[in-house]
Every structure is written in C-alpha cells, then in structure tokens.
Design the sequence.
C-alpha cells in the first residue's frame, strides 16, 4: 500500500523535474518571464492523448507531442519577441489562457470540460507498461536523459549565451550575437521538454482535462524554480522533491480531504513568501537579478 | 578609408541630435570626435553601431553600405565598441566574457555541443596582459572595481574580431594612473595597425593621442583637422570653451 503511494509520488516528481528544469531554461537561464509554460505541458498532454486515441504508437505520439509543444514555443517567441519583463509576463499569461480556452472549447478534439479519459498506458515497441513500478522506471529513465541533455546545453558555450542574454541583451548584441535567435532556441528547448512532461503526465494519469493546466499549476512550477534558485539546475531538482514531499506529510495527520487541497496551496504560498523574503536567490541560486 | 559617413541625420521629435553629419575615417589611425555635452557624439556612435536608427544618410564600412544592417550584423561586419557606462554580464566571470567575445560558433546549439571547443587560454591571457587586467579568470564582474570593469569592457571589444574599434569615453571616471595606462593600451593597439575612433571629453588625452580630430556642436561637424589645427581653431574654441 505504502509502496504504491511512494511510487505514485516518485512518478509525479520525475515528471515535474522535467517540467521545472525546462522552465528554468527559459526563466532562470535566459531571463524570459514565461507564464505560459503550463500551456506547453497541456499541449504535450493533449497531443499525446489525442494521437494515441487515434491509434498512433506511444513513442511516435511522445515525439510529436514534443515537436508540437516546441512549435508553440517558437510561435510564442515570434509573437512576443519585442516584449520584456512585465509585458512579456502578461503576454505569456494571455497565451496560457488562450490554450486553456482552446482545450475547453475545441470540444470535437479535446472533449471540452469533460476532458479525455481512458488514455492508454505506454506501449514501448510491444512492451506494455502495465504496473506503476514499470512506469516509474520509464519516467526515471526519461527524466535522467532529459536532464542530461538540458544540463549539457546549459554548460555549453550556447548556455553561456543564455546567461548573457538574461544579464544584458544589448551588451550581447553589440558582440555580434543575434539574441532574438538565442531566445527562440531557448524557448523551443524549454517548451519541447514541457511537452514531453505533459505526454508522460497524460499517459500516467489516464485522464486529463483543462483544469490540470490552469493558473494554480503555473504558480506551483514557478514556486519550484524560485525555491530551488533561479538558474540552478540542482535547485530545481531538489525543490521538486521538497515541494512534493512537504505537503504529502499532511496526509499523516487526520485532516479531512476537503481541507487538504487548500492547505497545500497555503503551504506552497508560505514557502514562496518565506523564500522571497529570507533567501531571494532561492536555496541553491547564485544569480543576482537586478 | 575604412568608414565613410554621408549626410547622417537623427531627429528625436523636432530636435536634431545629429544633422547632416559627414566624415571619413582613415585606416590605422586614431581619430577622435570631441564636442561639448549634448553635441551628438554618443548619438553618432549609436548610429554607427545601429543602436539607433538614422532618419537620413548613409554609412559605408570597408566599402560596403551598412546603413540597413542590424546591430549584431554591424558588429559581425567588423565594428567593435565599448560603452561609456560599461555593459557587462553581472553573473558571468572574466573568462566567460572573453570566451563570448572570441567565439563565433556559440550561437549554434549543435556546434556548441559537438564541435571541439577551441582552446582560447593563450589568446585570453594575451588580451588581459594587453589591457593590464590582473585578476583571476573566474572572478565575477560584480567583484571588479569600476576601473577594472572599464578594462574588461575594452578587452572584450579588442577580443571580438574587428577592423574598427569605437571607444566611447574610454577614460571617463577613471583615476589618473589608469588614464595613462588606457592611453598606452590605445597607442599599442594603433601600433599594431588598429583603427580607432574615440569620443572623449578629456582634451589633453585626445590631443596627446589622436592623429585626426572631428569637432561636433549641436549635431553638426563644425571643424576637423590635426590636433594642432583644432587647438587654434576659433570655431572650436567658441563651441567648446564658450568663448
């Protein structure tokens, strides 16, 4: 019983590590205040669910989900490339609401507010991941590969340009670097991995509806990145564990289920406020934002 | 001639910051642009490096019309510049700054990940010696003094492949010792066939360093010539000293 519960938590942690680290690529490393990240997660989830429903093999659906989310990342930068700071945050938040609205209203494709149920478990080249334990191993494998790729990118000379874009975009342009192109690439990488996390989420849950991709979910992944530290790779991973485990400890107290949900939200908010007040760079962050 | 500016004009609303400005910069010379505050010197620099868009006129660099290029394309074409208020990356080290300046393949993720990274250690060491910046390579720019930041800014402009170096008030706000050091650095760059265009308020610094001087006032070039001519030019004295 406790084993199943632990496996469930670890699967979600694995999925959210990919989601948080990919948000950190855009937000922390490149300085793009992107409130639309949850939309990419939703796009990945819906694309994968719809494609597998139509008989497309899981692996292909997973790859297409990443590509579609990446295309939306490209589209978002294309629309917002002249915006910065608060204006960019508002525009990306608008993008997030737009995608939410499409999920809700394109009923013929998304099944509207009822969502998509009966999403199949992954079938990898004929091997069906029936048990949660098998799914956990698969998520761990994908999370490790994803983190290795993202880590290699941020530690490469291109990763150095991401830092420089965040710190002084104009200063970088006069060194001959096309910062718009750099932002496109950063956002595509970020959205692509968010789409991947979305696909895993859909096939684990077996059911998705638009409420999984709303504003409170954005706040949760932002909290992970800020608690771990802006532009801290290690921080995002450790903060995902912390922010999943602390609220789960509430289950050991006799709290009614209708109180548990709001209590979790209060805990996230308190952690976020505490970090911003007493450790604004986050637990492992070194980045000094002006 | 490396740079030719023809009838360049920049208006902010109804005010002409630069008006019908034409000048030519010779190769391997140190050319200075001087003028009182608000005469349009920095605006002219920003027009050359395309941080501002001109309303009229043309800029030719190495025989090519660069008027319509974007700021980063201007930089890639071979114009390197510094800023009066240095623009550095506050969370990066000295080494990171110089690696970014030296690299021309870091914008490609594929090349960044899979291509052998060039060993720039020797070049970085040589450039830091040239600008007399004696700090460990892993020092963050936030741990540098104002003067050291000026030197790093200059080092980055030198490191970036270029054939024309624009220096925007290179000794503004620095102490007299560093001022002399920067003067020697600029002279050495010129000795090594570097072409330098600089803006500076410090008249003694300019007269001592420049081969040729353009004087601006109210957005226009009012005089040009060798330092000795400029020093005795009546128009210049009127504009610059208010006589």
Sequence:
């Amino acid at each position: 019983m406790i084993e199943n519960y632990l496996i469930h938590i670890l699967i979600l942690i694995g999925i959210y590590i990919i989601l948080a680290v990919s948000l950190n690529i855009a937000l922390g490393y490149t300085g793009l205040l992107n409130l639309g990240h949850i939309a990419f997660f939703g796009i990945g989830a819906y694309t994968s669910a719809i494609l597998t429903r139509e008989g497309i093999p899981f692996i292909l659906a997973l790859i297409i989900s990443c590509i579609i989310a990446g295309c939306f990342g490209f589209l978002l930068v294309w629309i917002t490339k002249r915006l910065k700071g608060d204006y960019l945050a508002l525009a990306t938040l608008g993008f997030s609401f737009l995608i939410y609205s499409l999920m809700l209203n394109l009923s013929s494709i998304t099944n509207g507010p009822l969502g998509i149920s009966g999403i199949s478990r992954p079938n990898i080249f004929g091997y069906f991941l029936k048990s949660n334990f098998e799914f956990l191993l698969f998520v761990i494998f994908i999370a490790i590969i994803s983190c290795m790729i993202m880590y290699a990118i941020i530690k490469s000379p291109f990763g150095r340009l991401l830092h420089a874009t965040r710190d002084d975009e104009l200063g970088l342009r006069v060194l001959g670097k096309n910062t718009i192109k750099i932002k496109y690439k950063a956002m595509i990488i970020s959205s692509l991995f968010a789409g991947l996390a979305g696909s895993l989420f859909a096939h684990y849950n077996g059911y998705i509806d638009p409420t999984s991709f709303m504003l409170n979910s954005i706040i949760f992944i932002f909290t992970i990145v800020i608690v771990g530290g802006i532009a801290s790779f290690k921080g995002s991973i450790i903060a995902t564990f912390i922010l999943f485990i602390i609220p789960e400890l509430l289950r050991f107290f006799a709290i009614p289920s209708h109180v548990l949900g709001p209590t979790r939200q209060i805990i996230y908010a308190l952690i976020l406020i505490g970090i911003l007040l007493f450790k604004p760079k986050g637990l492992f962050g070194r980045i000094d934002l002006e | 001639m490396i740079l030719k500016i023809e009838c360049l004009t920049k208006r902010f609303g109804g005010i002409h910051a630069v008006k019908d400005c034409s000048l030519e910069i010779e190769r391997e010379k140190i050319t200075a642009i001087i003028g009182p505050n608000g005469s349009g010197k920095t605006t002219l620099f920003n027009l050359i490096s395309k941080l501002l868009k001109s309303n009229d006129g043309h800029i030719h660099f190495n025989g090519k019309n660069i008027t319509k290029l974007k700021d980063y394309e201007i930089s890639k074409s071979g114009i390197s510049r510094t800023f009066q208020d240095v623009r550095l990356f506050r969370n990066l080290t000295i080494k990171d700054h110089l690696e970014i300046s030296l690299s021309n393949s870091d914008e490609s993720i594929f090349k960044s990940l899979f291509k052998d990274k060039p060993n720039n250690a020797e070049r970085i060491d040589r450039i830091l010696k040239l600008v007399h910046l004696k700090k460990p390579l892993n020092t963050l720019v936030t741990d540098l003094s104002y003067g050291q930041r000026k030197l790093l800014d200059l080092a980055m402009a030198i490191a970036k492949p270029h054939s024309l170096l624009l220096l925007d008030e290179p000794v503004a706000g620095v102490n007299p010792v560093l001022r002399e050091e920067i003067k020697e650095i600029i002279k050495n760059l010129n000795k090594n066939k570097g072409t330098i265009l600089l803006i500076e308020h410090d008249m003694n610094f300019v007269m001592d360093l420049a081969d040729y001087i353009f004087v601006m006032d109210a957005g226009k070039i009012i005089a040009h010539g060798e330092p000795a001519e400029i020093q005795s030019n009546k128009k210049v004295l009127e504009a610059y000293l208010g006589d």
About this structure: The interface with chain A takes residues 49, 51, 70-73, 75-76, 81, 83, 87-92, 96, 99-101, 103-109, 112-113, 117, 142, 156, 160 of chain B (CB under 8 Å).
